[in-house]
User: What shape does this take?
Amino acid sequence: MRRISAQYVITNDRPVLRRAVVSAEDDGTITGIMENDGLLTEKQSVEFYNGIIIPGFVNCHCHLELSHLKGEIPEGAGLPEFIMNIRNRRDRNEGDPAVMKKAVMQMADEGIVLCGDICNNASAFSTKENSNIAWHSFIEVFGIDPARAEKRIAEAGQTAEEAGKYGFSYSVTPHSLYSVSLPLLRLLKEYTSENRVTSVHFMESESEKQFLRDNTGSLKESYERSGLLTDDIMTPAGHAEGILDEITLSGNLILVHNTFTDAATVKKVLQRKNTWWCLCPGSNLYVEGRMPPVDMLISEGCELVLGTDSLASNKNLSILSEMKLISEYFPAVRLEEMIRWATLNGARALDKENIFGKIASGMKPGLLLLENADLLNMKLLPETTVKRLL
Ligand SMILES: [Zn+2]
Assistant: This one.
């Protein structure tokens, strides 16, 4: 049994507590919280830290299998170029267990306890099985050639079967509205009609809006150069229509990126219940050189979660780094609110809120310590670090 306290404790279950003591079993299960009205009398059995205790971080969007592409793809080239680079380079060293293991260790060091991970194949499965992070694996499907739609579903089914053998929590999911042909989207909608969680890359670039509008632009050119373009391109007519009409209505939906979204689209998409908006600012700055419109998403009432994306488009896999970027560009966002996106909301979006996201009796959320933050103003500083206590 451990008793742990700090200047502040953010539980996501009660107001911010001063010097409360969290009790936990050695396996991380929380057994109780003692509020002290800020008056902690020194006791030998209590570990006291100068910082903020929070639940473990939830990373809602990563591609572990792309870890070997760290530093390989030029920054700022835009999404069509980025996708082409991934296509050309992903096979080299893909699935190198040593590289993926290192990425998992980095995530764990950065306090990530649960991760939604995109899989285009089974190459990351054994690394995930042997890690100290919990996962939800999204078996991702893409393909703009309508003639191959059936084949793509069959391939995803095989990978899903493999995930089942490992006993993983998983769901099949479409990559995006611009990379999945309409016939394939419709087969997938049927196939995923009982999904508990679905994840879709959403409005990451201006070029995908143009591609959906009239099948032209730099995304089309990128498909052309890769020899993927067919005569019969079939895509949804727009982003909101695509989400509402062509994606399963079952369970939670995580929309990833949202960098180029606008209030009108958001208002329409919000007709779908249980939609979560995932911010990956590090990746957005890397690929498109642009931040997502965090203030607009907040004012429209979107439920936000955070993701790191992969090492192909980010310098590290750290939720704290993503939070620092948000505070830098949107200083009005309160730290407590951002922590909620990074913990409780992520756990809810990935359908794991019975274990993660809250410091409360019976939960096993992981316990983190934020150090070197500005405790007076409750702000992150460039030198703020995170340490895992439990
Ligand atoms: Zn992604």
Q: What stands out?
A: The first strand starts at residue 2 and ends at 9. DSSP finds 13 helices and 15 strands in the chain. Residues 149-165 form the longest helix (17 residues). The chain has two domains: 2-55+363-388, 57-349.
